[in-house]
Design a protein that fits this description.
By secondary structure, this protein is an all-alpha fold. The chain is built from 4 helices and no strands.
């Protein structure tokens, strides 16, 4: 999946979350959870867009971590609604649960990969710095 395709997917997820949450704001039992779900579900797309515009690999990696956290949180709220029977089991709920699970898995792998690349870059930078600071070999007396 290309970054553009993934961006489209996060946009569609956010739109679906907005539509899903709208009627939930009217219920006393679902209002607070709907607010949390709306915040985390739409943050997936916003933060992925921010990651794509990152000014450095470190910034990109940090934003991917946020995207992973937000997609995981959205999944948690959706699962809670189902487990607590706050709303009826619908195709929309199941579809959002499935998509949030898939996005969470995708961003978990992407975040791990970005962190590994970040560690490799730092290690290489450290080696270059160490080699430039080393003294020439000593001649025997």
């Amino acid at each position: 999946m290309t970054p553009g395709e993934l961006k489209t997917r996060t946009e569609e997820f956010s739109k679906a979350i907005v539509a899903f949450c709208a009627p939930l704001f009217e219920g006393v039992r679902t209002r607070d959870i709907a607010r949390q779900l709306l915040r985390s579900g739409t943050a997936v797309d916003a933060n992925y867009g921010s990651a794509q515009r990152g000014r450095s690999h470190d910034e990109f990696t940090a934003r991917l971590g946020v995207v992973f956290d937000e997609s995981s949180e959205a999944k948690g709220w959706l699962d809670l609604m189902q487990r607590a029977a706050l709303i009826p089991e619908t195709d929309a709920l199941q579809s959002l649960q499935r998509e949030s699970d898939e996005l969470t898995r995708i961003f978990a792998v992407a975040y791990r990969t970005a962190r590994a690349k970040q560690a490799t870059k730092r290690a290489e930078k450290g080696k270059r710095r160490d080699s430039s600071l080393s003294l020439p070999p000593r001649e025997p007396p």
